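The aim of this short unit is practical: by the end, you should be able to scan a pair of folded records and say something sensible about each. We start with the first protein, listed as its amino acid sequence and then its structure tokens.
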Amino acid sequence: MSSWIDNVFDEHGFTEDGKTVAPFFTAICSQGTSSPATQTARLHFVSSVLWNSCPTPQLPILPEVLSRQDILTELGSLHIPRDMRYAPLTACLILIAAASVNASPWSRIKSSFTWGGGRGQADSSQWAEERELGPYLIRSEFPLQDVHGLVQDLGDLQQDLEETLRLKCQPESIQIHLFQSKRSYDQYLRVRIPEGINRQALYVPGTDPGTGRIYAYRQRDLETDVRHETTHALLHTALPYVPIWIDEGLAEYFEMPGSSREKGHSHRKELRDAIRYQGWRPNIEKLEAKRKLLDMNGKDYRDSWGIVHFLLHGPKEARMALDIYFEEINSGAQETPLSKLLRKRIPNLDQAIIDHLK
């Protein structure tokens, strides 16, 4: 370790362990000099931390072949104190990008690692096909001709969503990774997003605006899964914040092909049966109280779809309330609960939803 880093350690009293790495990031990024020696020292320390050279339980072990977007997403998910999380880490990444690629610490990074535009090259030996389609970069372990309909649907999905919701999506780079099997999906995610291996498909928002990654594996519902996760990705480029229940309700709605969205979803029959045999009634306030994905169960997905269907295909007052709700979210102000906007315009709201769905 260089004398420059030694001086910073001595000045701030830091040691290389899990408790002091985060504040050291702050200190190392505060140094203003940009001499080659300093760049090399910074590279040495940052690469040693990122690649687990020092015992840091708060930092994940990162694979050697990652794109720029992979690194940004991984760093955005670090479990370190919130007030230390983004600014110092981003600053360190800028330092790495600015330094000479000939510096010795880069010997541990494969040549496929790239910082260009968020579309870094992946290990080409893994993918049978790669294709760019508008803002999407699709990487697949099987020929995309096998899912030709899905690829075509993705090309139309943004326009459908914008026209239906009267929103403007602004995707920059959405990477879609398609795996041949559950096994290869699990192997890929285990070192990147281990909590995702229990899900059939996964959307991970990027740290840059308009970016994100989608993972799914080949099975009967692959096309539905990818449309669902891509809806999440697009919605999060149109709105600064999407409440979990309406996020999932809209994803359930748009996961169907365009011709089947209004009448073709299995949730329609499920809700009709629930109304007829179980006395089902909607409870928007209960859905609004949910803050985490883990709070949502199967019936919550179904009920969210039903309310979204009412908003999009029900009375004009419902659609007006949704438009106002989105406008308030986009304004940055504290939004009025959608339930309140609806009940103000539709006094007997619960019965109106039941009548619409049955």
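Turning to the second protein, read its sequence before its tokens, just as you did above.
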Amino acid sequence: MAKKRSFRPKLRLRNIILFFFLALGFLHMTLRIQPNLFNAEEQKWNRVAHIRDSIKIQISELVFQNIFPTHIEIKIDDDKSRVAVEYTLNQEIQSFTDKLIRSYKPDYAAVVLMDAESGEILSLNSFTKHDDFKQNLALLATYPAASIFKIIPATAAIDKYKYDSDYKIAYNGSNHTLYRRNVMGDTNRWSRLLSLEDAFALSVNTVFAKLALNKLEPHDLEEYTRRFLFNQPILTDFPVEVSSATIPHEKSYLMAEVASGFNKINKLSPVQGAMIAASIANDGIMNLPYLVKSLKDEADKVVFQPERVELSRPLSPESAHELKKLMEATVLKGTSKKSFKTLVRNQKLMPMELGGKTGSLTGDNPKGKVDWFVGYAIKDNRKLAIAAITVNEQYWTVKAAFLAQEIFKKYFNYQAKVTGRVIPYAVKRN
């Protein structure tokens, strides 16, 4: 007796095909009714980007001269009108920082303070003793990145190769030199071991040269400079010069110089320095900095209010946590220990997460000894990021790290005053 043939597989296939075409039909009808269903979000961000670009065109020339116009004419949704500009700047902190810098009279100085989570610029300061230098120093990218660039190989080692802060590296020589024989030579009986945390905190050039040559590849440095948005324009509502990084294509002494920051090739703007610190404070997320909080028409109606924009995720949250150990060590026992000692001992303001990186090198534009501090302060769910820079032609007047400490103190004292909170004391050391 012949077996009956089963039609179940064919029926199942027909049902799948029928469902597929019904779904396509439904999608087609949906798109006819709501053609912007899937690109509404894209259109929204394009609109915001367009308005921000228009704002930048209107205010750039004045902001570069340290002037913040209160009204501009701008086109929004095909309507051109005169609008009032509200800035993100905290006037209390902006004024305090201006007075603080002027009191020490460095030849040149700049500070950028930003909210690491929102991207709001809270203070944007520029100072010079020279009347013929009119540019806003906070917006320039003419300064050598110096040892701030050590953040790049440190992040690559931690984020990509999973080294931790206790990883030991053998080296020869002193902390702040970079002799070829110590970099390119092998270890010997005079070699010393130093942890990645201590090498970062003390800014030991040879350790970072060895780390790059022995554990990293040139493309690793290229990858992480790209992740931190070097060589890329910052498309925001105020003008910022592009920070630049050039990485050699092969392992060499030049690669060692680049990784340690012991070169004048790579340049950094204070704005981008603050962004780098913000991404570490913000668990690996780099948000777009912005200066304009809102635009209001003549009837006092808000016609534009920006939202947070995520630009990049240069490192994972776990790697950001590990990198914070390095940056905290800089403040507690490293190159900025003296500058931060009064804040660390402040019974009213602690506990507070503090971290940073210092850097110094002679620069050419403007000429003088460049001193950097890039770092963060986290307290009561507020995450601040800062970049401070001073340039002195002959004599030091103030360290950038000390400026950062004073600004953090002022900000959190101001917050406590505004909120009326009494802050308990406990020094945090992870």
